[in-house]
Amino acid sequence: MKKILLLLGCLLSINSIVAQPGNYRTVNDVAYRQVTNDSYAAERCKADIYYPEGVTGFPTVVWFHGGGLSGGEKFIPEQLKQSGLAVVAVNYRLLPKAPLTDCIDDAAAAVAWTFNEIGKYGGDTQKIFVAGHSAGGYLTTLIGLNKRWLGNYGIDADMIAGLIPFSGQAITHYAYRRSKGMKDTQPDIDEFAPLYYVRADAPPLVIVSGDREMEMLGRYEENAYFWRMMKVAGHKDVYLYELDGYDHGAMAGPAFHILKNHIKDILKKRED
Question: Taking each helix axis from N to C terminus, what angle separates 100-117 and 135-145, rounded to the nearest 10 degrees?
């Protein structure tokens, strides 16, 4: 029998991570990397910063949009507004105009920028979480587990307070597999697969998937295997949620309740 892993009634009470400030500010199109001779990078390598004014020490979520690595635009999720969190909503270069390595490197550069700059807005660099939906979930786990991407910017990936991918791919992304002439149904686990980098000492990992019968391309099953292998590798703080009745797109709404709940729990554990 399928096990229902989400109890929405318990999670809907999660309203605010920190004391609720009165005003929030959004700063649009902040360049998170210096670009000189690449007009496409100059266009895409920007983020919107949403943060509570008059507050210090708040947590921050770096948010990567979905779109199959070939589309999508940055946005501040409605479910994270007025919650005491800051959000850094990131655009990154897309296939086929850029190679996959540029997509991943942009994600790492945006997280590194957040570590280096969020303190100027009042944020706490020890409370930076990384999350995203679909392709954004894939980027979240890849740069969080393969330490070389953030290491290129002088940041240890283990400084991330938590990784929270929504319906991300754990195997090599299908867009990259297509570029190599592979079918969507042909799995691959190579250097571009988060599964390739399972390790015991990674940041806390919260994996959220839609209903296994409604998700795309076996997304739940690959994430379930990802979860299992993280546990086998010795990771002590990894969770898997399946949202029964929600497909690949719709699962993002309730998944934000899980995100806020785990951020609250992680921060509370630090205080205890």
Answer: 70
